Amino acid sequence: MKIENNISLKQYNTFGIDVTAKRFVSIDSVYQLQQLLKIEKDIFLISGGSNMLLTKDIEKLVVHINIKGISIDRENKNDIYITVNAGENWHDFVLWCVSENYGGIENLSLIPGNVGTCPIQNIGAYGVEVKDTITKVEALDIETGKLVQFSNTECNFGYRNSIFKNEAKGKYILTSVSFQLTKTKHNLNSSYGAIEAELTSKNITNPSLKNISEAVIAIRESKLPDPKKIGNSGSFFKNPVIAKSQFLELQKEYPNVPSYIVSDTEIKVPAGWLIEQAGFKGKRFGNYGVHEKQALVLVNYEHATGEEIYQLAEKIKETIFKKFRISLEIEVNIIT
Ligand code: EPU
Prior knowledge:
Blueprint: E1 4-8, E2 20-27, H1 30-39, E3 43-46, E4 52-54, E5 58-65, E6 70-75, E7 79-85, H2 90-100, E8 124-125, E9 128-129, E10 134-141, E11 147-151, E12 172-182, H3 193-201, H4 209-223, E13 231-235, E14 241-243, H5 244-253, E15 260-261, E16 266-268, H6 271-277, E17 284-285, E18 288-290, E19 297-300, H7 306-324, E20 333-335
Bound molecules: uridine-diphosphate-2(N-acetylglucosaminyl) butyric acid (EPU).
Uridine-diphosphate-2(N-acetylglucosaminyl) butyric acid (EPU) binds near residues 235, 258, 273 and 276.
């Protein structure tokens, strides 16, 4: 465990924002983390850096969670129980599961970030949320330095939400996540329009986990920018949920507005559609802008500052509110 000074965080965040950590340490075991917490508790955590927008240099000690390792806890004829340490790359874990024929997370292929942060915003895509496979999350209590466990229910998962974004925020460091995956009788989820279309185009009628994973990868690659090439944090905003009455008004003016029913009284509207209607899709403002193929994604072409991207997000929010009377909520963690 070596504390380094003045380290650029550019390679540690998928937006590729070049801010400096005054002090930086990479941690590769729970024991190291416990030792560190004995001397310093006021820390700034970074893992895959895929859901954050850094707007300035970090004064606190930056702790990079790099705890690796995957272990199989138990298995029976139908299911396997696996614990994955926080620093494992999410997509590599998905690919490994697909290659071993363990089902449940194939729809979540190619999502950037690490396993340890997947429960925080309950990552989700193409009809699946990670909460459906998580059995337990283990975390270090920063105050006591002790390991604690959260059951699936205790995580209080919701749409892009969990206890770790609410009452538990800032109190714990997630060290591992346990999953229950299927070995047989996979519960395949290929009904999402884009997946169905991709499989049909390949004449696949009875898809395997691999077919679904490959379809998701193809869809994501066609719509979402690769963070290694263009800095981004995926969906910058959540899809807003509005009252059905407001939705019906909106539909009168825009008969083609896409929507998902949330309840008898509430409808979810894609933020990407709203942003596109407001004319921001594909708009470039020098070093940063709105992705040309998915308006929900803000991008750092090169050398943008976090503040510039944040100001663009605020401008988008303001415009959407003026045009539609809908408040967009930022999904990405803004570090100010
Ligand atoms: N749409 C537009 N213009 C756009 C983008 C989308 O009109 O620029 C429309 C599409 O035509 C479609 C609808 O909006 O009718 C939904 O689009 P899409 O299927 O691309 O999904 P999304 O609602 O924009 C959500 C997640 C994504 C996830 C996809 C697929 C959120 C905030 N985002 O996006 O998650 O990959 O569904 O399941 O819920 C992420 O969180 O980083 C992320 C990429």
